[in-house]
Amino acid sequence: MNVRTALVLLALALATIFALVCVLLSRGRAPGACPQQPPAQEDPDGGQSLVFADLTPAELAQVVRYLQGHLGLRLVDAARAKPSDNCIASVELQVPAKAEVLRFLDGAGARPRREALAVLYFGEQADPNITEYVVGPLPTPVYHRDVTVRRYGGKVPYHRRPVTGEEYVDINALIRRELQKAPRFLAACCESDGTDLTPLPTAPRGFKSGDRATWFVLFHSVAGSGYYLSPVGLEVLVDHGDLDVSLWQLCRVFYNGQYFASMADLEEEFMANLLEVVKIQKPRAESVLGSMRPRHQPGSLGPLHYEPEGPRYSVMGNRVTFQDWSITFGMSPSSGPRFFDIRYRGERIVYELSLQEALALYGSNCPGGMSTRYLDGSFGIGRFAYELVRGLDCPYTATYVDRHYLVESDTPKTNQNSLCIFEHDAALPLRRHFSDSHSLYYGGLRKTTLVIRAISTLINYDYIWDFMFHSSGAVEVRVHATGYISTSFLHGQGTDYGSRVGPHTLGTMHLHHMHYKVDLDVDGQLNTLETQDMGYKLMKEPWSMQNTIERLYLHRKRLEREDEAAFLLNAPMPRYLSFASPNSNKWGHPRSYRIQINSFAGEHLPTSSPMERAISWGRYQLAVTRRKEEEPTSTSIYNQNDPWTPTVAFADFINNETITNEDLVAWISVGFLHVPHAEDIPNTVTVGNGVGFFLRPYNYFDEDPSVDSRDSVYFSSEQDPGTCGANPLACPPPACAPHLPPFRYGGFLNLSLALPPGAL
Fold first, then answer.
1. Has 461 been annotated as catalytic?
2. 244 within 8 A of 377, measured Cβ to Cβ
3. Of the listed 227, 344, 461, 576, which one is catalytic?
4. pTM exceeds 0.85 for this model
5. Can you say how many angstroms the Cα of residue 491 is from the centroid of all Cα atoms in its chain?
6. Cα-flanking dihedrals φ and ψ of residue 708, to 5°?
7. Which is catalytic among the residues 54, 239, 341, 376?
8. Average pLDDT in the 429-441 region?
């Protein structure tokens, strides 16, 4: 052995010893901490996204102070206002006109004035009404202008106003007083004195314009559990239409299939032994139907989501960037999550993507259930998007964002950590191929997605709103329903309207329908709607003309007018429907984005119904209209309490205007029919209860844009896949411990000030 060889062997031996020593020394040592913050980067839009930013608490307070000092009227804090008072009902951002915004974002136009939209209830006037003001400029307002007539064609009648928390408190007090008129009946039927029964409101509130009479369903209340599963069979109708609270009255009573004029009449029937009473034991906390308390001690921990090299997205104010995506986000107190100026690779794909409404329509053989058509926007989809539970509602290490609102109070409120942002690994390839012929190789890309999520609790139901941005350039919108089912007291032929889920509990059938606005700007504002679908043509095979073949062919069509582009719910619709640009990709096809809907909606309310026009957006699974500044939303918070003369009727948007090379909006409905079953106890699960839609690039690019992803993997049979140079999966980052902040939760903080309707 020569000296050179000996030195080489000695060097290798020393290197091996050094490596072994490092391994031995590192044994038992805790891994280092993972990076905590998103990578620092400059904000490339220079704060332009702030044109869409929700109002800050300081701005909300400024608007309140301005209105208090400049209207010349006595304004009562809405938190304690009676119907006969004037009050500020809500304040939120007045979104600037699109043309003005685009001049600012894309050209040399000035930044649009920052303004607020204030809704006021004027009960202390000769002609009580609802008035809307635009107030500005912020942060120091000096003007206000009445926009009610311009927006709605006249003053909004006072009876259309949403019911306030204070109004519910007064109704609840009335119900409690009336219950005291039937003490013996309540003791016999429910082991109750009336003070432990919880009323649940229904809506709408009558059968004609001007009505304000609400059915309330009464439930046994047990602390720490959902009362929605414990109906006692008693329902009451309260007329609360008068401005004078002292004139409100309980005008009808329902019990176990029978109707009575009052609680006193019910008591009289009971005392005369003329009433069939179903005795219900008062629920016990340890055995109450629907308890969510854990039944076992915690087991081993499940997988933990974390980023070994820190988050790969960045949040700057109301804007998030991720790979090639840029998204501006916000939250309307009434309609919920909304997004603006969604760009991919610097090109705007969507100007506005916003939730519009969530409808829950019930069936039952009890009055409350059979008449319920909740329009959740009137309650507040965004307002009741409470704090998210870290590690369950969203990954523990997600980024959590506060949302602020001013509704039914002169003081701004904050829902802490009520919107979360995270990158999600779907544990599924976005694309892959294993080649087993010609040449041997593997290529693929993990499916990772940016998710922006909020969860709204609307009385009994919880809606999980997801907006997802894929590396293929696709946008996915999805909603899951969970929470408690609403129930009726089981009597008579109750199972014609649902399923028995408890001793005296009927899980009532219902529809969930959600509506979205999608203002697509595909390669510019001017787009055309194009469809494609398949067909078979029987023909002679051309090589011998002796046999026949069913040849599949493609049928293309350009839709010219709005009426053609209004597709009724559950009716056939072209499988491919795209917003097309006048410009082409490299291969000569129009640059387009395809709308793909995933929904199994129930049947829409018959158009013969006197209240159908208020939810006429539900007629259509998809309707495409020309964008108009005067048609910003498909519904109104005022539609709930006067659906018979709707303030906004979506059907009026469709008037057969041309939609060729125009600025277009897609209005999309998704939903499902829910017939409750035993497995909905204690809660409805999200599995199988999710619907939504995709916005997918269709010839928008020249190839799949994800080919440029740094996460791509490729190795061939001629390479060693266990080496870093050939395969990045072979060299995962060093193990690190994710930074897990202490678990804190403040989601209950505002509830004493902003009670939802069912928590009186």
1. yes
2. no
3. 461
4. yes
5. 34
6. -85, 0
7. 376
8. 93
